[in-house]
Amino acid sequence: MKGNRLNFTIIIIIAILNITKQVYGDDSMSLVKNAQHIKIKVDSGYVYINPDGSLNLLRGYIIDKMGLIHNIRDFTPDLDIKYTVSPDTSEGSEWTSHILTRIRDEDRPLFKEFENGIKDIYLNKYYIALINLFPFIDKDMPIETPNEDSFIRFLRSKDVLPNMQYVLAAILLITEGVNINIDVSDDQYAPTLTIKRKNNIEYMSTSLNIKKSVRKSREDKWVCQRKTIELIEFFKTFVSAYFLYKENEFAEPITLEQFKSGKFLNNPGFLIQTFIYYVLKTEEGIKGFYNAVHKMLSNHIKDTIDSSDTTHLDAYYDVYNKLFIHADDNFYIPSTLSYINALESIPMVLKKEEVLPFSNTRQIPDLENIIKNSNISCIDKSVKIHLLQVENNMTLSILGIVCCLLYNPKECQYIFTREQYSLTLINFFQNYMRPFQSIGVSAYNEWSNICMSIMKNKKVFADNNNKIYPGLLNMLYSLVDILEEDVKEVVMLDGFIQKACKSKFIEDKEFYRKLNKYLTKLFRRMSVNSYVMVAFENVKKVHKNNRCDLHGKLTILYTYIDNQKAISIDISDNGIGMIPSKTITPFYITKKKEILDLTYMYTEKDNFTACLVTHYIECTANDVEIKLGKNNSEGFIKEVKNQISTGFKNINSLLVMRKIDCLWYKKQIITAMLINSCDSNREITKIAPLIRFLSNIIGSCDLSKPDVLKEIICRTSFINNYDKIFPHIQINQRLYEIINCTTDIETITTVLLSIIENKLPGLLLSCIEKYMQENSDTENRWFNQIFKSYSKQIYECFLEYNSIVYLNALSKLMVDSGYTDKIIEIVNVISLVYACESKSISPSQINQIYNNISIKCISTLSDIEQYLEIETSYKKVTEMLSDKKKEVHKGSEVEKEKLNKLISLFKLK
User: Fold this and answer.
1) Which of 21, 70, 249, 538 could form a disulfide with 552 if both were Cys (CB 3.0 to 4.6 A apart)?
2) End-to-end CA, the chain
């Protein structure tokens, strides 16, 4: 009972957090859309905001979605991001446990020598402003902070809030080059902020001391807003800096090429526009802000006309036309929504005729996703651990399967066509479930209540904490109970499994055939889409409550038109987990093309808004392939090599490529950066921007998880003194020792494949040699697990420069390492087959590969084909050997024997 109360408390806490986060939720797009309908009354009628201009909140929306402000704030090497990783010394902790401490209040710009004069001074001030505007205490609420001395707290203070729109409008206009009068008084103890027209008529004046509420104290305390003063001075000081305007280094981009350089990330307009997007979350507030901008700019133009100095008048008119547009409703509304229409078309393209209700792993109902969606990181560690203990994902995986069963791909929605479905189930899906959307804690809580009822079924086994035991039969009994299906087929399957377990029939091929036939028949009957195949493999017997159940991998393959997609379900002692397949079919290739077509249908690449929209669409199209497992990293690798060749002078071009939030992408960046730097023959520790950038990336990973910490450290382990180049990381020395001598095969494979992907044959050979030296069972690991799966990629990498030097070196390395003759021979014979099939290898090079082959232990063809990754009749290699045989002199009996053995080997095909 105590556990249930604690679980309920967690749900309440998460619900409160979700309410707090609603302001940053999915309603943002509708707010952006409504903002474009706002009219501003003028003497001649009305004006709207120009969709191409800086007032379009769509800019902030895309900047948020693409993580641009997140990337520059957390990863730029110009900031020293403060964190520490140290062993967890608390009582009862494992030696592998470490604590990650992130100290955001201590993030600082790196001191520059100001070699470039005003530009370096500007960048130093810019990064201070970036930290002040975006503390990122919570990744989903980037402007929020508990700090009393902060710009956001100043804007929301009682006296400033009614005039907040004037402060924001003044700063935005300053970044557009309009010299608005915004002044801070010199009074050290009672400074004031005043905004006024050129003719000295005030818009507002307010104290820069705000009241601080102090508990258990009758006296009011006042906090001077030093950071606000610093921010305003920053924007004012650099209003006319040459490098911010007219296609100079940090200017707002107007072409896609300029955009992809990422230099605009250091533009003050980019800062304030993004900040305004996060601040204004009501239509009323947006309207007040738009009116304030229009009023202040119109007055400034009028005051300039009335003054004797009209030098900048044309520039002010240009700003007006950039921000506002005169148009009637019939013309304006359809044209201004073109950018939004483009973005809203993307999910429709992706959802159209999708065969499963999940397009990525984040949408799968499981505990980890609920935790991510609910910001549970704010909850006490012990409470979080309890939540993890009371849920093994069994009930959530059952929900995922039910979603697949009820999903109609033609209509892209869940349907209930059968009378037996309970009203409780129907109401649950209508209230909480939508295809292609992840679930939150409310849905989890309601689903748990539904699952409580199935635990009354004597066929469904659960423990005292109402945790359903993982098992195939247990899962199937749960499914038919929830869907109120006929249980007869599951009972028959149960009997079949019990009989098979007793007779040890479980290891027979006939058992698998009959089991999969039962499962396919059952799922076809229960599914809305009956085009389904089911397979169960890697079977392991388990016993619960005197019943034999099965653990293993369940694969459910659905088909709709030309699209196939599977869901894999791993059932084990630890619980159950679901993973959508990553198979690419022509369906997805078509989807990518349809998404890319939106860039031509809706946008012209001549302004910053259009650049944002176009780049966002392109990134979404690339994500289609990434999420489905296709390697499309050529652009990324090219950018990494560009960074290294230019000495990391503009890391921003990497920061605009995509949001750096997923662990797989962070690992890709770390590995690609390091292996390419190693290959450039430079001392990595002397490349300061690289080390700072990677340190910031590493610090953003959840290094408190032992598996994540080990994975990240492994990716740095092939660098000299890798345990000393990241000073923030102080891990248990025992972990370094384990990494150095028993690097796991998965990490070895990842590093080697990354080197292959980057086409670095010299580094590939060096790493293979390192792993051979450091691991006693390398022969098994390298040959049977890596070469067996990736022989073609390894061969192509070694032949990158049309030279067989590296292949020869590999052969010698295996000999020197004491590899068996059989293994060495297989590698050399396979290289010969690949070389003969290649059009880029010369006859003399093929001959050198042939010379590496001995006749000590010629393998059988079946031995070789285990490691060969191409389909071939061996015609070309046989022709080459036959031609060579004709050239052999009569006295060369050993050579003839070698050729005859090889020819007979391949003619067995």
Assistant:
1) 538
2) 68
Residue 808 in any domain: the answer is yes
**DSSP line for 163-193:** GHHHHHHHHHHHHTT---EEEE---SSS-EE
Dihedral sign for Cα atoms in the order 138, 140, 146, 151:
positive
Instruction: Looking at the structure, tell me whether residues 398 and 537 fall in a common domain.
Output: yes
Q: What mean pLDDT value characterizes the chain?
A: 81
Comparing CA positions, the residue from 725, 715, 712 lying closest to residue 683 is: 725
465-498 burial by CB neighbour count: b if 16+ within 10 A, else e?
ebbbbbbbbbbbbbbbbbbebeeebbeebbeebe
Q: State residue 201 phi and psi, 5-degree precision.
A: -75, 130
Please, are residues 333 and 341 in contact by the beta-carbon 8 Å criterion? no
Residue 697, pLDDT > 90, answer: yes
The total number of structural domains that make up the chain: 3
Structure tokens at 283: 């239509």
Domain boundary among 581, 612, 634: 581
* Within a domain: 588: no
- Enter the tokens of residue 266: 């250091």
Length of the chain: 909
Predicted local distance difference test score (pLDDT) of residue 273: 97
Give yes or no for residue 25 having a pLDDT over 60. Answer: no
Q: Are 531 and 552 in contact (CB under 8 A)?
A: no
Backbone angles phi, psi at 558, to 5 degrees: -105, 145
Q: Give the model's confidence band at 282: pLDDT under 50 very low, under 70 low, under 90 confident, else very high.
A: very high
Of 520, 548, 581, the last residue of a domain is 581
Angle between helices 761-774 and 745-757 (to 10 degrees): 170
Q: Residue 717 and residue 442: Cα distance in Å, rounded?
A: 43
- The residues pairing with 40 across neighbouring beta strands, listed in sequence order, are 47
Helices 28-35, 58-65: inter-axial angle, 10-degree rounding: 160
CB 473 within 8 A of CB 550: yes
Structure tokens at 308: 């004797």
Q: Are residues 303 and 207 in the same domain?
A: yes
**3-class SS letters over 42-60:** ECCEEEEECCCCCCCCHHH
324-326 sheet: strands from edge to edge: 40-42, 45-49, 324-326
The half-sphere exposure of 10 on its side-chain side, counting CA atoms within 13 A, is: 28
Buried b (16+ CB within 10 A) or exposed e, 838-858: eeebeeebbebbbebbeeeeb
Look up residue 877 and give its amino acid. Answer: V
Cβ-contact 380, 562 below 8 angstroms:
no
Shared domain for 439 and 517, answered yes or no, is yes
Question: Would you say residue 742 has pLDDT above 60?
Answer: no
CA distance 737 to 361: 34
Residues 515 and 395 in one domain: yes
What secondary structure does DSSP assign to 838-868, as a single string? -SSS-HHHHHHHHHT--SSSPPPHHHHHTT-
Instruction: Give the C-alpha separation, 61 to 73, whole Å.
Output: 17
Query: Is residue 221 within a helix (H) or strand (E), and if so which, with residue range?
Result: strand 221-224
Let me know if residue 31 belongs to a domain: no
| Pair (203, 309) in one structural domain | yes
Q: Are residues 429 and 561 in the same domain?
A: yes
Radius of gyration of the chain from its Cα atoms, rounded to whole angstroms: 32
Q: Is a pLDDT exceeding 60 seen at residue 14?
A: no
* pLDDT recorded at residue 348: 64
The closest of 212, 154, 467, 171 to 296, measured between CA atoms, is 171
Closest Cα to residue 249, out of 362, 348, 119, 159? Answer: 119
Output the six-digit token pair for 851.
């010379």
Structural domain of residue 210, as residue ranges?
147-323
User: Looking at the structure, do residues 799 and 885 belong to the same domain, yes or no?
Assistant: yes
The tokens 């110009």 sit on which residue?
78
Instruction: Give CA–CA dist 727/729, Å, rounded.
Output: 5
Tokens of 849: 């590969």
571 bridge partner residues:
552, 576
Q: pLDDT per residue over 396-428, tens digit each?
A: 888 889 999 999 888 888 998 777 788 888 888
Q: Does the predicted TM-score (pTM) go above 0.85?
A: no
Q: Please check whether residue 82 lies inside any domain of the structure.
A: no
